[in-house]
Specification:
The complex is a heterodimer of chains A (142) and B (142).
Chain A (H helix, E strand, L loop, with lengths): L8 H22 L5 H7 L9 H20 L11 H17 L4 H10 L3 H23 L3
Chain B lengths: L1 H19 L4 H8 L8 H21 L20 H17 L3 H9 L3 H28 L1
Helix pairs in contact in B: 5-6
The chains are: A mainly alpha (142), B mainly alpha (142).
Amino acid sequence: MIDWAHFTPWSALAGGLVIGAAAALLLLLNGRIAGISGILGGLFRPMPGDTAWRIAFVVGLLFSPALYGLFARLPGATIEAGYPVLILAGLLVGAGTRYGSGCTSEHGVCGLSRLSPRSFAATGAFMAAGFATVFIIRHLPA
Amino acid sequence: MHSLSAFFVGVLFGAGLIVSGMTDPSKVIGFLDIAGFWDPSLGLVMGGAVSVGLIAFHVARRRTTAFLGGTLGRPAERQIDRRLILGSLVFGIGWGLAGFCPGPALVAFGAGYDKAVVFTIAMLAGMALFELAERFLNEGTR
Protein backbone atom coordinates (compact mmCIF):
# COMPACT_ATOMS: atom_id res chain seq x y z
CA MET A 1 0.00 0.00 0.00
CA ILE A 2 1.47 3.35 -0.99
CA ASP A 3 1.99 5.85 1.81
CA TRP A 4 0.59 8.91 0.01
CA ALA A 5 1.02 11.09 3.10
CA HIS A 6 4.83 10.72 2.95
CA PHE A 7 5.44 10.11 -0.76
CA THR A 8 7.18 13.19 -2.22
CA PRO A 9 7.54 12.44 -5.95
CA TRP A 10 8.58 15.90 -7.17
CA SER A 11 11.22 16.69 -4.57
CA ALA A 12 12.53 13.12 -4.87
CA LEU A 13 12.85 13.46 -8.64
CA ALA A 14 14.36 16.97 -8.39
CA GLY A 15 16.88 15.84 -5.74
CA GLY A 16 17.72 12.81 -7.86
CA LEU A 17 18.45 15.01 -10.88
CA VAL A 18 20.79 17.16 -8.75
CA ILE A 19 22.57 14.05 -7.43
CA GLY A 20 22.91 12.82 -11.02
CA ALA A 21 24.29 16.21 -12.08
CA ALA A 22 26.85 16.08 -9.26
CA ALA A 23 27.92 12.57 -10.28
CA ALA A 24 28.13 13.73 -13.91
CA LEU A 25 30.34 16.72 -13.00
CA LEU A 26 32.75 14.65 -10.89
CA LEU A 27 33.03 12.11 -13.72
CA LEU A 28 33.55 14.60 -16.55
CA LEU A 29 35.56 17.29 -14.72
CA ASN A 30 37.68 15.12 -12.42
CA GLY A 31 37.41 11.75 -14.12
CA ARG A 32 36.22 10.21 -10.85
CA ILE A 33 33.31 8.05 -9.79
CA ALA A 34 31.07 9.80 -7.24
CA GLY A 35 30.89 6.88 -4.87
CA ILE A 36 30.91 7.98 -1.25
CA SER A 37 32.23 4.74 0.25
CA GLY A 38 34.98 4.54 -2.38
CA ILE A 39 35.96 8.17 -1.84
CA LEU A 40 36.13 7.62 1.93
CA GLY A 41 37.79 4.23 1.55
CA GLY A 42 40.57 5.70 -0.59
CA LEU A 43 41.58 7.85 2.37
CA PHE A 44 42.59 4.67 4.20
CA ARG A 45 45.01 3.83 1.36
CA PRO A 46 46.56 7.23 0.71
CA MET A 47 48.34 7.60 -2.60
CA PRO A 48 50.36 10.67 -3.66
CA GLY A 49 48.14 13.23 -5.39
CA ASP A 50 44.99 11.25 -4.69
CA THR A 51 44.01 12.51 -1.25
CA ALA A 52 43.23 16.24 -1.51
CA TRP A 53 40.23 15.89 -3.86
CA ARG A 54 38.73 13.20 -1.62
CA ILE A 55 38.98 15.42 1.45
CA ALA A 56 37.59 18.38 -0.52
CA PHE A 57 34.59 16.30 -1.63
CA VAL A 58 33.87 15.08 1.91
CA VAL A 59 34.22 18.62 3.31
CA GLY A 60 31.76 19.77 0.62
CA LEU A 61 29.27 17.13 1.74
CA LEU A 62 29.71 18.10 5.40
CA PHE A 63 29.22 21.80 4.58
CA SER A 64 26.25 21.25 2.29
CA PRO A 65 23.56 21.60 5.01
CA ALA A 66 25.04 24.90 6.21
CA LEU A 67 25.24 26.30 2.67
CA TYR A 68 21.80 24.94 1.77
CA GLY A 69 20.43 26.56 4.94
CA LEU A 70 21.46 29.99 3.64
CA PHE A 71 18.89 29.71 0.84
CA ALA A 72 16.15 27.44 2.10
CA ARG A 73 14.88 25.82 5.25
CA LEU A 74 16.62 22.55 6.04
CA PRO A 75 14.26 19.60 6.28
CA GLY A 76 14.37 17.68 9.55
CA ALA A 77 15.58 14.14 10.07
CA THR A 78 14.00 11.49 12.26
CA ILE A 79 16.53 8.91 13.43
CA GLU A 80 14.55 6.20 15.17
CA ALA A 81 17.38 3.76 15.85
CA GLY A 82 19.04 3.92 19.27
CA TYR A 83 22.79 4.32 19.78
CA PRO A 84 23.70 0.61 20.06
CA VAL A 85 21.82 -0.15 16.81
CA LEU A 86 23.42 2.86 15.10
CA ILE A 87 26.90 1.66 16.08
CA LEU A 88 26.21 -1.85 14.80
CA ALA A 89 24.64 -0.47 11.62
CA GLY A 90 27.58 1.87 11.05
CA LEU A 91 30.09 -0.97 11.37
CA LEU A 92 28.07 -3.11 8.93
CA VAL A 93 27.70 -0.26 6.43
CA GLY A 94 31.40 0.64 6.64
CA ALA A 95 32.76 -2.89 6.29
CA GLY A 96 30.05 -4.05 3.86
CA THR A 97 30.45 -1.20 1.40
CA ARG A 98 34.23 -1.66 1.30
CA TYR A 99 34.01 -5.45 0.92
CA GLY A 100 31.34 -5.09 -1.79
CA SER A 101 33.21 -2.16 -3.44
CA GLY A 102 30.35 0.30 -3.23
CA CYS A 103 27.26 1.81 -1.66
CA THR A 104 24.08 3.40 -2.97
CA SER A 105 26.05 6.03 -4.87
CA GLU A 106 28.67 3.93 -6.68
CA HIS A 107 26.53 0.88 -7.42
CA GLY A 108 23.04 2.40 -7.24
CA VAL A 109 23.67 5.66 -9.11
CA CYS A 110 26.96 5.45 -11.02
CA GLY A 111 26.95 1.69 -11.62
CA LEU A 112 23.41 1.57 -12.97
CA SER A 113 24.22 4.61 -15.14
CA ARG A 114 27.14 2.66 -16.63
CA LEU A 115 24.81 -0.34 -17.09
CA SER A 116 27.33 -2.43 -15.15
CA PRO A 117 26.07 -5.98 -14.49
CA ARG A 118 28.08 -6.03 -11.25
CA SER A 119 26.29 -2.94 -9.98
CA PHE A 120 22.86 -4.32 -10.91
CA ALA A 121 23.71 -7.41 -8.85
CA ALA A 122 25.05 -5.34 -5.94
CA THR A 123 22.04 -2.99 -5.94
CA GLY A 124 19.69 -5.99 -5.98
CA ALA A 125 21.60 -7.50 -3.06
CA PHE A 126 21.65 -4.45 -0.78
CA MET A 127 18.03 -3.58 -1.60
CA ALA A 128 16.94 -7.14 -0.81
CA ALA A 129 18.89 -7.11 2.47
CA GLY A 130 17.41 -3.71 3.36
CA PHE A 131 13.85 -4.88 2.61
CA ALA A 132 14.38 -8.06 4.64
CA THR A 133 15.92 -6.20 7.59
CA VAL A 134 13.09 -3.67 7.82
CA PHE A 135 10.53 -6.46 7.42
CA ILE A 136 12.06 -8.37 10.34
CA ILE A 137 12.24 -5.26 12.54
CA ARG A 138 8.78 -3.92 11.75
CA HIS A 139 6.59 -6.89 10.96
CA LEU A 140 7.86 -9.95 12.78
CA PRO A 141 6.74 -10.31 16.39
CA ALA A 142 9.76 -9.90 18.65
CA MET B 1 41.59 22.71 -9.54
CA HIS B 2 40.54 19.10 -8.95
CA SER B 3 40.03 19.82 -5.25
CA LEU B 4 38.00 22.95 -5.92
CA SER B 5 35.66 21.12 -8.26
CA ALA B 6 35.46 18.16 -5.87
CA PHE B 7 34.41 20.54 -3.07
CA PHE B 8 31.76 22.12 -5.30
CA VAL B 9 30.49 18.71 -6.41
CA GLY B 10 30.37 17.57 -2.77
CA VAL B 11 28.18 20.55 -1.89
CA LEU B 12 25.95 19.90 -4.92
CA PHE B 13 25.70 16.18 -4.14
CA GLY B 14 24.75 17.02 -0.54
CA ALA B 15 22.17 19.58 -1.69
CA GLY B 16 20.64 16.92 -3.95
CA LEU B 17 20.42 14.50 -1.04
CA ILE B 18 18.79 17.20 1.12
CA VAL B 19 16.23 18.16 -1.57
CA SER B 20 15.45 14.50 -2.25
CA GLY B 21 14.63 13.87 1.42
CA MET B 22 17.17 11.03 1.65
CA THR B 23 19.04 12.63 4.56
CA ASP B 24 16.05 11.65 6.71
CA PRO B 25 16.48 7.99 7.73
CA SER B 26 12.75 7.60 8.41
CA LYS B 27 12.12 8.32 4.73
CA VAL B 28 14.67 5.72 3.63
CA ILE B 29 13.13 3.16 5.96
CA GLY B 30 9.72 4.17 4.56
CA PHE B 31 11.01 2.98 1.17
CA LEU B 32 12.48 -0.24 2.55
CA ASP B 33 9.22 -1.07 4.36
CA ILE B 34 7.42 -2.59 1.38
CA ALA B 35 5.16 -4.67 3.60
CA GLY B 36 3.86 -1.61 5.46
CA PHE B 37 2.88 1.85 4.22
CA TRP B 38 5.32 2.17 1.34
CA ASP B 39 6.98 5.49 0.42
CA PRO B 40 8.35 5.04 -3.15
CA SER B 41 10.35 8.33 -3.05
CA LEU B 42 13.80 6.68 -2.95
CA GLY B 43 13.01 4.91 -6.22
CA LEU B 44 12.37 8.25 -7.92
CA VAL B 45 15.59 9.70 -6.46
CA MET B 46 17.55 6.87 -8.05
CA GLY B 47 15.58 7.16 -11.27
CA GLY B 48 16.30 10.88 -11.52
CA ALA B 49 19.99 10.42 -10.72
CA VAL B 50 20.44 7.53 -13.15
CA SER B 51 18.70 9.41 -15.99
CA VAL B 52 21.35 12.15 -15.77
CA GLY B 53 24.08 9.59 -15.13
CA LEU B 54 23.26 7.64 -18.29
CA ILE B 55 24.01 10.73 -20.39
CA ALA B 56 27.19 11.53 -18.46
CA PHE B 57 28.60 8.02 -18.76
CA HIS B 58 27.68 7.97 -22.44
CA VAL B 59 29.72 11.16 -22.98
CA ALA B 60 32.54 9.79 -20.81
CA ARG B 61 32.79 6.66 -22.92
CA ARG B 62 34.12 8.74 -25.84
CA ARG B 63 36.83 10.41 -23.79
CA THR B 64 40.04 9.25 -22.20
CA THR B 65 40.85 12.47 -20.34
CA ALA B 66 38.75 14.48 -17.90
CA PHE B 67 37.84 18.10 -18.73
CA LEU B 68 40.11 19.38 -15.95
CA GLY B 69 42.91 17.07 -17.06
CA GLY B 70 44.01 13.68 -15.83
CA THR B 71 42.70 10.30 -16.83
CA LEU B 72 39.01 9.62 -16.92
CA GLY B 73 38.81 6.67 -14.57
CA ARG B 74 36.80 3.72 -15.75
CA PRO B 75 36.28 0.96 -13.21
CA ALA B 76 37.70 -2.31 -14.47
CA GLU B 77 34.84 -4.66 -15.29
CA ARG B 78 35.12 -7.68 -13.09
CA GLN B 79 33.06 -10.75 -12.40
CA ILE B 80 30.07 -10.82 -10.09
CA ASP B 81 31.80 -12.57 -7.20
CA ARG B 82 31.22 -13.54 -3.61
CA ARG B 83 32.81 -10.37 -2.25
CA LEU B 84 30.42 -8.17 -4.22
CA ILE B 85 27.27 -9.98 -3.12
CA LEU B 86 28.31 -10.69 0.47
CA GLY B 87 29.54 -7.13 1.01
CA SER B 88 26.37 -5.66 -0.49
CA LEU B 89 24.19 -7.89 1.71
CA VAL B 90 26.07 -6.80 4.84
CA PHE B 91 25.75 -3.17 3.76
CA GLY B 92 22.00 -3.65 3.13
CA ILE B 93 21.45 -5.02 6.64
CA GLY B 94 23.16 -1.97 8.17
CA TRP B 95 21.23 0.32 5.84
CA GLY B 96 17.93 -1.24 6.92
CA LEU B 97 18.85 -1.04 10.62
CA ALA B 98 19.72 2.67 10.64
CA GLY B 99 18.23 4.12 7.44
CA PHE B 100 21.62 5.69 6.68
CA CYS B 101 23.98 4.99 3.82
CA PRO B 102 27.37 6.76 3.62
CA GLY B 103 26.37 9.95 1.72
CA PRO B 104 23.30 10.94 3.75
CA ALA B 105 25.15 10.04 6.97
CA LEU B 106 27.89 12.58 6.18
CA VAL B 107 25.30 15.25 5.31
CA ALA B 108 23.34 14.61 8.54
CA PHE B 109 26.69 14.72 10.38
CA GLY B 110 27.26 18.16 8.86
CA ALA B 111 23.76 19.22 9.92
CA GLY B 112 24.77 18.42 13.49
CA TYR B 113 22.71 15.33 14.37
CA ASP B 114 24.46 13.53 17.25
CA LYS B 115 23.17 10.17 16.07
CA ALA B 116 24.57 10.78 12.58
CA VAL B 117 27.96 11.60 14.13
CA VAL B 118 27.93 8.30 16.06
CA PHE B 119 26.83 6.36 12.96
CA THR B 120 29.54 7.98 10.82
CA ILE B 121 32.29 7.23 13.34
CA ALA B 122 31.14 3.60 13.52
CA MET B 123 31.06 3.49 9.71
CA LEU B 124 34.64 4.80 9.47
CA ALA B 125 35.63 2.22 12.10
CA GLY B 126 34.00 -0.48 9.94
CA MET B 127 36.02 0.71 6.94
CA ALA B 128 39.21 0.71 9.01
CA LEU B 129 38.49 -2.82 10.27
CA PHE B 130 38.02 -3.92 6.66
CA GLU B 131 41.39 -2.40 5.71
CA LEU B 132 43.11 -4.14 8.63
CA ALA B 133 41.50 -7.47 7.78
CA GLU B 134 42.50 -7.13 4.12
CA ARG B 135 46.11 -6.39 5.00
CA PHE B 136 46.23 -9.21 7.55
CA LEU B 137 44.76 -11.76 5.13
CA ASN B 138 47.01 -10.65 2.28
CA GLU B 139 50.05 -11.16 4.51
CA GLY B 140 48.86 -14.67 5.22
CA THR B 141 48.65 -15.69 1.58
CA ARG B 142 52.05 -14.29 0.67
